[in-house]
Each structure stands twice: as structure tokens, then as C-alpha cells.
Amino acid sequence: MTAPRQPVTTVCRAPRPIAFDFGAERRHIESMAILKIARMGHPVLRGRAQPVEDPTAPEIRRLIEDMLETMDDADGVGLAAPQVHVPLRLVVFRLPPERLSPGEHGDERIADAAEAAGSAEDVPMALINPVLEPLGPEQELGWEGCLSVPGLRGVVPRFTRLRYRALDVSGRPFERTAEGFHARVVQHECDHLEGILYPMRMTDLSLLGFEPEMSRYPLTNRTSEQAGS
Ligand code: NI
């Protein structure tokens, strides 16, 4: 998912250490990979993704690292494995602190993730085999973009609050409640695991458009106010 009209979505990452040992340097270079992102129309985006059988497998950890690299390179805030041509139930995303709800700042796991990332401004998350459960029928409208639908923005209804369960990279199950932007990102990314792209969730396709035009000609009706952006 991309975050339209947000002040800063690009995460500044600490410079990587320079290695003078050629062996270490080669390993370092090999540890990075920007993956190709599938675009709407590719069959990998239409199918149902398969469960990850061993969350602790080295290739899963490597995939998560590569997905985070790919997401950052593309200025995204979320990415699902099918978007990089891997049909597994795995998503990654980042939560900018300014987009968290007040109650979420105290979430232990979010705080732990921020500490592990070495920055309070950078909270990367990986969900393996996630399961979502809406908390109540309330939905809200909001703008979304998607790295697999480049250049477009649309207003999408999403559940306001939800609970999700998933496995972490150690294979441990955890659960968390989310609301607002956090809940929206999780719903958008997990939809990719079911072969659903955000335009398929839209209820008013007149609110789908190219980003420069949508910025140049802002919507002025009630729906744009509800979209809150
Ligand atoms: Ni997407």
C-alpha cells in the first residue's frame, strides 16, 4: 500500500557500515535485493496465497528483508508477498508513529519493533499467516494507493477496528488490535492474500483517479470529507 498525501512516507534509514573485507562486502551486497513488483493484471495478484509452513525458515526471513527493502525503495508503507510474485500468506508494513492512534503508542510489540529497528520513527512489521477479525460493523472511508496499481488513488471503505492474529519470524503466535490507519493498512495488505486489490473494494468508482489529477482537483463533496484526507 502507498500512503497518499502524507507528509513523509519515505523512511530515512541509517547508512550501512562500509566493509573493507571483500568477503564480508560480498555477503553484504548479496543480502540486499529489490524485488520486482507485480502489477494489476498479473495472475499472481488474483489467486489465494498459501500458508507459510515454516515461519522460521531462512528463506522466509530473507524474503521479509527483501520485501522491506523493496517497499522502502518504492516509497510504500506496506507490501504483500504475492506483490513480489511469491504466493505465500505474508505481509510487511511500516507504521509511522504520527499515524498511530493514541492507544497504540503503548502497544508493547510496536514499541519492541521500533526498538529492534533502532528508531522510534520506523516501525516495521511482518505478519505470517495473518487472520483478521473486524471489531464491530463500523467502516470508514479513506484514500489508498497500491504499488501494484501505480499512479492511482481511490477512496475505499474499511473496518474501523479489528483484531489480527499472526505468527512472527520466530514462529510464535501473537495478536493485536488495530484501528484507523493501522487497521486500514492491515486490511489492504491482507486483501492481497485473497487476490483482492483495493479498486475491487471501492463502492464509488468516481473516487478513483490518477494522483496528480486528484491532487490538482481536490474533491469537495461530502465523500471527500468523510475520506478525511
Ligand atoms: Ni497493495
What are the distinct ligands in this entry? Answer: nickel (II) ion
Unreliable stretches covering 5 or more consecutive residues: 5-27, 117-121
State the separation between the terminal residues, measured CA to CA: 16 Å
Number of strands: 8
Cα Rg? 18 Å
What string gives the helices and strands in order? HHEEHEEEEEHEHH
As a percent range, the share of strand residues is 15-25%
Number of helices: 6
- The backbone outline, from C-alpha atoms, is globular
Mean pLDDT level = 82
Can you tell me the number of structural domains? 1
Q: What strand order characterises the main sheet?
A: 1-2-3-6-7
- CATH architecture designation: Alpha-Beta Complex
- The CATH superfamily appears as Peptide deformylase
- CATH third-level topology: Peptide Deformylase
- Give the class-level CATH name: Alpha Beta
In percent, how helical is the residue content? 25-40%
Largest sheet: 5 strands, antiparallel
Sheet/helix structural class: alpha+beta
Written account of the structure:
With 229 residues, this protein is of the alpha+beta class. The protein has one domain (24-226): Peptide deformylase (Peptide Deformylase). The protein contains six helices and eight strands. The strands form two sheets. Strands 1-2-3-6-7 form a five-stranded antiparallel β-sheet, with helices on both faces. A three-stranded antiparallel β-sheet has the order 4-5-8. A hairpin with a 5-residue loop joins strand 6 (161-167) and strand 7 (173-179). The model is unreliable at 5-27 and 117-121 (pLDDT under 50). The structure holds nickel (II) ion.
